[in-house]
């Protein structure tokens, strides 16, 4: 089930971010991950439109939008490969139409997902906080 974020989801969202990031972003430092975990409830959630994927009452993952940009898409690793990321992205397309996303070049899991979904690379640049190379990708809704 895809539903709107509730404040009671915050701890599960932070956990999903951390667990997914450890898998997809092994190049990021623990210090950086901890900073983002603090920023999620304070900065990101209040300023995004966030959707939750719920499976049997548990938060399987989430997607946050800032306008038409996918600001975050993270799933608990046990839920990868089950169509949940696609369901969240389908919801984002339904809500916003054309989308953009920024993904780390070294994030093979995320890049493969966005490629399969139909996103195309439109730019690349270093991420200001870490210096890691990022790709900006765009999706054109039908």
TrEMBL record:
Check the record and name the CDD domains matching this protein.
Answer: NAT_SF
Q: Could you tell me the keywords of this UniProt record?
A: Acyltransferase, Transferase
Is this entry keyworded tRNA processing? no
Highest taxon of source: Bacteria
The N-acetyltransferase domain covers: 1-142
Task: Kindly indicate whether the keyword Transferase belongs to this entry.
Answer: yes
Q: Which residues form the signal peptide?
A: none
Q: Which GO terms describe its molecular function?
A: acyltransferase activity, transferring groups other than amino-acyl groups
The record ties this protein, via PANTHER family, to: PEPTIDYL-LYSINE N-ACETYLTRANSFERASE YJAB
Designated name of the protein: Putative acetyltransferase
């Amino acid at each position: 089930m895809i539903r709107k974020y509730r404040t009671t989801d915050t701890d599960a969202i932070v956990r999903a971010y951390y667990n997914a990031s450890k898998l997809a972003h092994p190049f990021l430092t623990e210090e950086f991950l901890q900073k983002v975990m603090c920023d999620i409830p304070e900065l990101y959630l209040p300023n995004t439109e966030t959707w939750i994927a719920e499976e049997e009452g548990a938060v399987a993952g989430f997607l946050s939008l800032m306008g038409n940009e996918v600001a975050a898409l993270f799933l608990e690793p046990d839920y990868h490969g089950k169509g949940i990321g696609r369901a969240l992205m389908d919801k984002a397309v339904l809500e916003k139409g054309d989308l953009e996303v920024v993904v780390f070049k070294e994030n093979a899991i995320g890049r493969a997902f966005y490629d399969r979904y139909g996103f195309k690379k439109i730019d690349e640049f270093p991420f200001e906080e870490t210096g890691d190379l990022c790709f900006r990708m765009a999706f054109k809704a039908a």
